[in-house]
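Severity: low
Component: inverse-folding endpoint
Summary: output formatting inconsistent between runs
Steps to reproduce: submit the following structure tokens with default settings.
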């Protein structure tokens, strides 16, 4: 019993497998981020591989399409409503989205994950952890999540209960 209690203190990797063979094939090709790609992030300026975009966490995009001459013409393109998490009230979102090959991955309350088309905002898939809402009482600053990591076809997210989850991208 003592072992089980101490196990809760560590983040545990949980692999979730789902979908058909076709979905598994698409997932195997999605989010193929590795160290070589992160180091060469400037060669793929349309992607935002980490919370800071690149290996140096620069938080800077080299894209030049928007400039001082046209910034005033920017407009609203799309929005995404994360909705209620299993009927709970709306909670905070405090994460930098990760964008890889046209897919935007973001986290929400309790460790929810949303995969969206970066072009249209269309929801591609969502993961909502099955957590007891009582975990929110143990958090200092709401049930927020600080983001996902994408690595070699998986999307990693920390849940509010301390578990680390790996999802097929």
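Observed output (run 2 of 3):
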């Amino acid at each position: 019993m003592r072992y089980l209690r101490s196990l809760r203190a560590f983040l545990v990797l949980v692999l979730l497998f789902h979908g058909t063979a076709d979905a598994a094939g698409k997932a195997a090709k999605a989010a193929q981020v590795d160290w070589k790609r992160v180091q060469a992030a400037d060669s793929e300026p349309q992607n935002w591989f980490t919370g800071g975009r690149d290996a140096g966490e620069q938080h800077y995009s080299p894209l030049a399409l928007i400039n001082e001459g046209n910034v005033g013409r920017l407009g609203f393109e799309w929005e995404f409503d994360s909705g209620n998490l299993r009927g709970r009230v709306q909670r905070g979102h405090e994460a930098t989205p990760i964008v890889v090959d046209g897919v935007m991955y973001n986290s929400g309350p309790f460790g929810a994950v949303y995969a969206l088309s970066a072009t249209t905002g269309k929801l591609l898939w969502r993961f909502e952890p099955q957590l007891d809402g009582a975990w929110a009482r143990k958090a200092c600053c709401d049930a927020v999540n600080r983001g996902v990591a994408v690595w070699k076809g998986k999307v990693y997210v920390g849940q509010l209960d301390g578990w680390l989850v790996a999802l097929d991208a």
